[in-house]
Predict the structure.
Amino acid sequence: MVSVVINVDSMAGAVPVTRFEILDAVEGAFVRRPVTKSELLESARDAGARVELLATLNRLRDRRFSNARDLWADLEDVPVDR
């Protein structure tokens, strides 16, 4: 399991994370389905995702995700685009 420690206070005023940005960062993880939260975080880090995106993914429940649509149940508040 991969843990990510993020200082949320340092993210004040940051550009909001969008669903499109999340998809860009984790699309490669879904080649071998289903994937875990840890695998999604690893994929996003490997893609060079910014800390705000990693913090958003860290809110996901610890379970398996069959496809990207499964993410939105845990991340309903994330906008589609800016």
In short: The mean pLDDT is 89. Residues 19 and 76 are 10 Å apart (CA to CA). The chain is about 30% helix and 5% strand.
